Automatic annotation (TrEMBL):
It holds the Pfam family APH. This is Phosphotransferase enzyme family protein. It comes from the Bacteria. GO terms for molecular function: amino acid kinase activity. Residues 34-262 form the Aminoglycoside phosphotransferase domain. Keywords: Transferase. The keyword Protease does not apply. It comes from Actinopolymorpha singaporensis. The keyword Cell membrane does not apply. Belongs to the pseudomonas-type ThrB family.
Amino acid sequence: MPHDGPLPDEPPHGAPTNLTDLLARWRVPAPDAVRPAGPGTNNSVHVVEAGGRRYVVRGYQNQSADRVAAEHRLLTGLADVGLSFAVPRPLPTRDGATFVPTPSGPVALFGYLPGRPAGRTTRDLALAGEVLAYLDLALAELPAGLAPADWRHPLSEVHPAVPDLGELAAELARVLPGEQGDDPGWLHAAAERVDAMRVRWWETLPVQVVHNDFALGNLLVHDDGRPSAVLDFEFAGLDLRVADLVGAVSMATAEWQPSDRATDVLCRAYLSRLPLSTAERAAFPDLLRLRALESLVWRAGRWRQGQARLDEVRDRLAGARQLDRWLEQHGPTLVDDLTAL
């Protein structure tokens, strides 16, 4: 049931109420301190200090036990390929499992990885582009069977609570009147357009396991500027190879307009390590549109399930519309700029 009021009350910082009992499953003593790990909205993630060590407790609010187990298999495989930076690795419980089922969803424990989140400085943006390229090269070497998900599906399958984009468009027109500008049918038409293009992309562009959520906050950096770790593989799966760079650009650029220096710095660094094909670069504008629509559909699904606020959906709808208008005018120039790198 969608709503726009306060979300249900949670324990302090959203930490599990039975945290001490949960930690005992890993032979970890009662916590001395607990704090939120960051501003994420999809899961409950907390840093725990216990027994003189630091851990990260992750409560999965969106994934089934099977999906979490698949993510953990991918992380284990990726940790063994010799990257110059770390990835999270789930710690086994006393019985050898990598997570504990709870009524709120699976809970896993990880060792704490040091570092600060990357920012929008030129140095961090360049580092992010290089790290993402190296990560994608490593992911390409993993068997497709390790992919926790296959993202090659229409927008109607992005979130189980949004099976019909036409219905969602009509609902948002009712609850967010005027947000689609002078074209209330824009959302449905845009979704149909990118879905038709997706089929051609899947047939012609390289596909591999990708991270699929490479925000700057998911890259940790040591004080000396070296990469420490890449976090948050919840959305990793099979997708277009270029999808990772598209996602990184969409999350690092300001105001949904990939025209600032972040795009140039990120793409230049990435492409210097992993050159993309001409066809991948040509698809970039429409893949940015797709990314914005996927974000909107995912947040709308969480709103329908009472896990997000309507304002979050409004922001993503406005952002997708703004990006679409910008790309209508500047998309060809963006392709030319990418081709020149």
